[in-house]
Amino acid sequence: MDPSQAVPLAQLLRDLSPETAHAARLGAARALGEIEASDVTVVRALLEAKERDPSYQVRQTAAMALRAAVCWRW
Predict the structure, then answer these.
(1) Whether domain 7-72 has CATH 1.25.10
(2) How confident is the model at residue 2 (pLDDT cuts 50, 70, 90)?
(3) Residue 67 above 90 pLDDT?
């Protein structure tokens, strides 16, 4: 991801909320799977999306993000 176009982590976490539009949630789940290092907040947000998002696409993308090796580099 190009650092000049990076979205702040706080914005990605807000976008993952079920109240946001489908495209924003899906994009946030994808972006969170590509970050270089995460913390417990990111993992919890992805777990929540994986378990509870109304869209199967967002649930699937969140599950794939959780499997990404970068997600576990704390």
Answers:
(1) yes
(2) very low
(3) no
Amino acid (one-letter) located at 31 = A
Please enumerate in sequence order all residues whose Cβ is within 8 A of that of 69, keeping only pairs 6 or more positions apart, or say none: none
20 Rama sector, left if φ>0, alpha if ψ -120 to 50, beta otherwise: beta
For the chain, the straight-line distance linking the first and the last C-alpha, in angstroms and rounded, comes to 19
pTM value surpassing 0.90 = no
Residue count of the chain, please give it: 74
Domains of the chain, residue spans: 7-72
Q: Is the pLDDT of residue 11 over 70?
A: yes
